[in-house]
Amino acid sequence: MKKKDPTVNAEGMATRTRRTIVKLLKQEGSLDALQLAKQLDVSGMAVRQHLYNLQEQQLVTYVEEPRTMGRPAKMWRLTPEANRLFPDGHGDLVVSLIESMKEAFDEEGLEKLLEIRNQKQVAQYKNKLAACVLLHEKLIALAECRTSEGYMAEVAEHTDGSFSFVEKHCPICEAAKACSGFCSKELEMFQQVLGNDVEVERISHMLSGSNRCVYAIKTVN
């Protein structure tokens, strides 16, 4: 019986650990090495080695955050290059199609096509949220829909009764870069789905350099 190569096993474990680190940074946002070590149940030194490896691949970077005591902490986050590790909704093909539609229908025609897409999304989400009464229930159902589409969405409720709707990934990011109408229609879509008695404001945007899109949502008094 052929013995397994321990070097291959070690490399496989290292690769899986780095994938987990990337996933955690995608889900949680910026984290320091000790926070990552705690979640992975490994030493801080081991995590740092993996982070420096990922940095060499240009998948992560960091900013230094001051601490009340001691040296500043390195807060690690994903770079735009890391987006290639997550589903992108066939970005290159979509971008090519957008450019073709601009040539065929001009900007006004493309806007009409986006409006048709938007209304179909509104109808689809309203159907999924039909049984929900409370705003919190609607947001949870909407987050489930968006997550199934690759947006990695979640809802956070605040003490003042407002909510944050967070999308940690954008599967159509490349398309949105090529056509800003996708993002503006998305904001309109959330507003239409949740109703006129709800205020929706985008306070963080991936295309503006953030690592996630965040919407502040509250009931209008």
UniProtKB/TrEMBL annotation:
Q: Per the database record, which ranges form the HTH arsR-type domain?
A: 17-62
Enumerate the InterPro entries for this protein: ArsR-like_HTH, Carb_Metab_HTH_regulators, HTH_ArsR_DNA-bd_dom, WH-like_DNA-bd_sf, WH_DNA-bd_sf
Instruction: Keyword check for DNA-binding, yes or no.
Output: yes
Domain of life of the organism in this record? Bacteria
> Which CDD domains does this chain map to?
HTH_ARSR
Task: State the coiled-coil residue ranges.
Answer: none
Sorted alphabetically, which keywords does the UniProt record give? DNA-binding
Q: What is this protein called?
A: Transcriptional regulator
Which organism was this protein described from? Answer: Paenibacillus alba
Give the source lineage, highest ranks first: Bacteria, Bacillati, Bacillota, Bacilli, Bacillales
